[in-house]
């Protein structure tokens, strides 16, 4: 979105005197300049560098002014002016109370994927910014969703309440025994799941964990055979703490790996329906039981996350597809995102992740305000 000012001339004739002789005063012409604002839609901004994979940096962008704000990550955490930020493949939205930014992914270019959700390579490989401009321009006020349809960046616990299922009809709680969690802690890896549980009132009474351990210090490359650890939550006091190395409950002062906080409900004491990992630990969720072990030398590429982790709204509908036709590049879907700030509505389309030299991490995109007047 670029704005141009075009001067125009308005003529105002001021008549003075009367008669038509050559000695009469001539008409005086006053030229009054007028300024007309013209908006050109679909202009591409960038590229903006987000650093390298080893030294990434954030680019904070203010959609209202169309400018990059020079902010550190620490300063951006309390700044309300920026709307959207880019850091390598990660896209963030401001969560400040004075400017909580939401996004909605339109259906533009949904045909880049088949009915099974698989990327159609030719659609990605043949798409260009110029060819996808018309689709972008076609998005307008009629495409704006309801308030409830917007998604926002948020935070969630990496394990949290994912270890159980809740039946809305019967109000019964059961173990999600097909959801595994891989924890990295103390130079070791542990895969665990909730195999069964019982409740007492609105608290956990017992929970049985299935645990598989892998010691990187001992040179182990795969998880050992699963064993069970049953935890009594009825006598819960300050919390239930588990040390995976010892494979047993420990005290709060010991080197624990996971914790179940205590809860008292209507006089009934038990564990809350939450599991937290230690501050120095990290974890990932494995819903397909696909990890036989962890390669310690490649741990940074597994996606381990801390106890409280950020959930990016753009993650649900990423702007790119990776590794098409064995090409280790990112290809844009040229999808159009509707962005809602505290003052305006916008549409945005990522057009490239590379600069003219082919260096990655260089974002180019087009955006425009959508008037609701």
From TrEMBL:
InterPro entries: HmuY (IPR025921)
Record PROSITE patterns: PROKAR_LIPOPROTEIN
UniProt protein name: HmuY protein
Keywords: Signal
CDD domains associated with the record: HmuY (cd12105)
Keyword Signal attached: yes
Top-rank taxon, per record: Bacteria
Keyword Signal found: yes
Lineage, broadest ranks: Bacteria, Pseudomonadati, Pseudomonadota, Gammaproteobacteria, Alteromonadales
Organism: Paraglaciecola arctica BSs20135
Signal sequence annotation: 1-23
